[in-house]
Amino acid sequence: MSLIVQKYGGTSVGSVERINAVAARVHAWQAQGHRVVVVVSAMSGETDRLIGLAKAIQVQPEPRELDVLLSTGEQVTIALLSMALANLGCPARSYTGGQVRILTDSAHNKARIRDIDGARIMADLDAGRAVVVAGFQGVDENGNITTLGRGGSDTSAVAIAAALKADECQIYTDVDGVYTTDPRIEPKARKLERITFEEMLEMASLGSKVLQIRSVEFAGKYKVPLRVLSSFGEGQGTLISFEEEVVEEAKIAGIAFNRDEAKLTILGVPDQPGVAYKILGPISDANIEVDMIIQNVAADSATTDFTFTVNRTDYPRAMEILKQSAADLSARQVLGDDAMVKISLVGVGMRSHAGIASKMFETLAKEGINIRMISTSEIKISVVVDAKYLELGVRALHEAFGLSEAA
Amino acid sequence: MSLIVQKYGGTSVGSVERINAVAARVHAWQAQGHRVVVVVSAMSGETDRLIGLAKAIQVQPEPRELDVLLSTGEQVTIALLSMALANLGCPARSYTGGQVRILTDSAHNKARIRDIDGARIMADLDAGRAVVVAGFQGVDENGNITTLGRGGSDTSAVAIAAALKADECQIYTDVDGVYTTDPRIEPKARKLERITFEEMLEMASLGSKVLQIRSVEFAGKYKVPLRVLSSFGEGQGTLISFEEEVVEEAKIAGIAFNRDEAKLTILGVPDQPGVAYKILGPISDANIEVDMIIQNVAADSATTDFTFTVNRTDYPRAMEILKQSAADLSARQVLGDDAMVKISLVGVGMRSHAGIASKMFETLAKEGINIRMISTSEIKISVVVDAKYLELGVRALHEAFGLSEAA
Fold this sequence. Notes:
By secondary structure, chain A is an alpha/beta fold. In chain A, 37% of the residues lie in helices and 28% in strands. The longest helix of chain A has 25 residues, at 63-87.
């Protein structure tokens, strides 16, 4: 008998029928002798409806009151799911974030969890009840309602699992696990049975949207075994584990990619201290996030060339700002291209296996794909290439590293 | 400078536009130097929408979870109204029932308020903020969310006014006050500037739907001055006061009526102890509420006749039960009529003014209206007449007692 925390997102509880289906699933786990805590999001569409009401009144809604408003979304779901469970003869009790008490800081709309009191939940579990908790929300120390920001329900589930020392935190989504790459790009993509926490962190930050990166960080910090699985089908999903030895054999866990890269280059900047700040400072002041940064010494060696990437939607403004900086710095030229993509290999196996980078570059070269930028970390290699090569590059790498075969 | 508690019902906050209008009204009171606490209901239609969701899952929703669900309705309104107030430059803060803390018993769906902690509200008022509180809800001593049952927002407002020792509790509705009778029946009906608490209680229990009877009882118990006024127009509304002397001059405050009466009579029942119970016990066991009861000694004096009224919708079942009782009691005959109405004169002036009953009977007789039943209390006289005489009777009495003229 184990203690399981399950999290169901907005799509999984998007209608009365789906709530009943979730109840049946929870009941089945209980019937197998497990103790189950369920964390739920608002029904899909509800949060947007509430935000619409708020914005009809205030262009920039009061942060404190927005949290009072939005937290009702999850509160509706916990009540309905508890009723659905009772209907199946499975006694259940619902709790809002404040009732649990999930204590957060006071940063409305983007609060961080500080502490969770597990006593009330444990008492219900001991009494044989399922416990249904509203995700995404908490209270600060003055009892004000707070929310964790979008996607925060994953974080709630992981934090509750950590507080209860749960055996596993199961995140139910509309996909049935983490794949070696996006199956829409490479039909041969294989579902991973396991992936390490570090790999999952890289995959999440590199564009794989299965899990919120914050919840993965949280799970890592508190050593909570996480499992991603489908709320619509059966199957074991993917376990995000901390046991590196088991997966060491697989050199590469998967291929992540980001479609929306834009590259900007400023050529012939005087090679002086502080020049990076002079170029990137104004970009950052405009709230534009910079992803990869590369600096080369130019041919004449008194100047330097500077290249960075931003999200494609930020490209026009970033270019405008960069042209201004180029004038201020007397740079030679500004170049840009907004049709770029980033492809990344991720795997803890890289640490102990040499030659992965060269094999990657060789594979891409064979397909005639020109690499525009390279960036590496301990467990990933990212390359920026022309957008038109995305599918070709992903498939070639997937094949070259044997990712379709079971590990 | 006074402390005012205002309550706005679902229709008054039924849309973004109406919430903005309520904010403007609250702001105007604040601008005049008053301290304002606002109690609101769910936006009209929202409670029904939520009940619909619950019933789609469970025919008889779990009472505890139904309260978790329904309480979100008012929570949405408090957030939106606080935003609307902030938008007008009027700092405001919202509180759920649990946040205030409005402590109730644990009777879910029909909880009773036990205690209200006014400290948090007073601190906000002292800081110059308007305070917006969710009506209809509270928490029990274990922190479970409770609701007071439909119409409970009036009770919340009165209870908060009592706890804060407010100078006045203003109930904003879609009518502009309490009238001498329903203006749809008698266009000359006059709005009362004042009515006593006892008269209001009688009016409410006799079918005048302006205020929930429970909130009037509460106001009476805690001596809270209540005012009923329109949330759409201007005007002073009607004050429900405790100063009887002021209104002593008016013999009659108003005429209430109930359209849905049905009369049942059992003739020739043996006149023995316990016979009333034998007749009414089975009716009450069937959850049928009995309104007026009259017992006469019959002509032969060894038997008695027994007449009572029920709501028209309960008539068929009540008749069925009564026929069974008649057989058991060997009664002579059972009679019934489901097209009856009750007309009531209400006024504390009756206590000191004789002849009101005879004037009432005379007035009805002049119009050829036959009185079928009579019942009196210290401050009201009710008669049951054929349904077709409702309008004629109300207008004749309104005229005879000079109710169109200002008191």
